[in-house]
Amino acid sequence: MSRLDARAVAGGTSQTSLIERAARSCVRVIRGRYTRRPAAVLCGPGNNGADGWAIARLLRAADWPVTVYTLTPQKDLTGAAGQVAKGSGLTAEPLRAFRPEAAGLVIDALFGAGLSRPLVGDARGALDSLAEAAVPVVAIDLPSGVDGATGSVLGTAARAEVTVTFHAPKPGHLLSPGLGLRGELVVTDIGLPQDAEPDAHWNGPCLWTLPVPERDTHKYARGAVLVFGGPRIAGGAARLSAHGAARIGAGAVTVASPEEALDIYAAHLDAIMVKPVTDAASAKRLIEASKAKALVIGPGAGRTDATRSHVLAALETRVPIVVDADALTVFEDDPDTLMQALHEKAVLTPHIGEFGRVFPDIQGDKLSMTAAAAARAGTTVLLKGADTVISTPSRVPVINTSGTPWLATAGAGDVLTGAIAGLMAQGLGAHDAACAGAYLHGLAGQRGGRGVTADDLPGLLREAGRAVATR
């Protein structure tokens, strides 16, 4: 944001004008959500604190009882904070005097997205007291203590009921634990340049378009998906992936089954076809015979030599593919072989445990970890979680937050894997299919709510797709 501020100032907009716009947008949000009540405004020494001083002035002008608490003594403030504080006509109390129980609303303007070190002293004390209080908090830009680039907590942070930010969400709003601390996120426009590339996109239908079949289409033109199934006792995962692909719109879905499990798959599947596969050569033949435009391998496959050979055979065909679960873990002792076999039409969909098995040396925050993994793999990596991150070389990373805790249920990830493959089979590229699949999967979980199971998700995926298509 500091880069955008600098560009706006270089273009002729003064820093104080930007602060005034930010403050007015915050006050509109505050007055639109809360009745008049005693407000405590916590101000830091930088531009975030300057926003706080301007907010306090505007609320006082609207007859709100306001008390400003400043981390830096008012007489020692410099820069924008000093200028705005001087023009506010308000006198502040020291931050150490803040008591949350005396306020009906707390406005957190201590530190914004630029915070880079853990909070200590009076700032930490104020936020620790807020964390134990029942008073509502409105955070300006970010809850103080949340790293704007990673979402991590630097020492401590208080949970906000509403966060008002400017221009665009920051990664810290979308990545855990910041995601769980910022409450309702309101993004306001204060006239910053619109052409700047963000650090990450917030996933949604504005980033991709769902495929629509032509009027004279047929099932294979709508997209054929081949799902590699596992042994008799582990076939549920592959069936869930197959249903996910079908319900998101793929026209023909086939499960490639080991011969000893054919009867189990056939007994459970009707609209989805079942074909035998015995070895790598037969896998390649089946990929061609099924007219597959996308493949799924990994869910329930087993950590076996057969799984490993099927993965490498499937990748050799260069058909778009989603590699998940056991198809990743089977390369735990030799991840370089997988990396060398991958191509740009592949999507890897690990959870954090599987990620560590194939990228054991990549650590850090989730955004940088996923970007590093995608660069190494040369293709799209989707790192699952409450804050799913999708990264593709030469593309802006995407953070998906449509998920819900109700999706923490066995088999949900298998449905996501199938959904991504189903979208790839219908013509979406790897990156867009991963983004759209993650978003719709999250909406399906929201619609299912309490008690949703993976068996429910394919039908809910269909409803989510319809809802997005009609917006």
Brief sketch in words of this structure:
The protein is an alpha/beta fold. The chain has helices at residues 2-10, 15-33, 47-61, 79-88, 121-131, 171-174, 178-181, 236-247, 262-268, 280-289, 305-317, 326-329, 335-341, 352-358, 366-377, 412-425, 430-448, 457-469; strands at residues 39-43, 66-70, 93-94, 105-109, 137-140, 162-166, 184-188, 201-202, 224-228, 252-257, 273-276, 294-297, 321-323, 346-348, 380-383, 388-391, 398-400.
Task: Report on the architecture of this protein.
InterPro entries: Carbohydrate_kinase_pred_CS, CARKD, Nnr, Ribokinase-like, YjeF_N_dom, YjeF_N_dom_sf. This is Bifunctional NAD(P)H-hydrate repair enzyme. One of its GO terms (biological process) is nicotinamide nucleotide metabolic process. It comes from Parvularcula dongshanensis. Homotetramer. The chain is α/β, with parallel strands linked by helices and 471 residues long. The protein folds into two domains: 197 residues, Rossmann fold; 265 residues, UDP-N-acetylmuramoyl-L-alanine:D-glutamate ligase (3-Layer(aba) Sandwich), CATH 3.40.1190. It has 18 helices and 17 strands. The strands form two sheets. Strands 8-17-16-15-14-13-12-9-10-11 form a ten-stranded mixed β-sheet, sandwiched between helices. A seven-stranded parallel β-sheet has the order 3-2-1-4-5-6-7, covered by helices on one side. Helix 3 runs parallel beside helix 4. The longest helix is centred in the first third of the chain and has 19 residues. The chain is elongated and about 80 Å long.
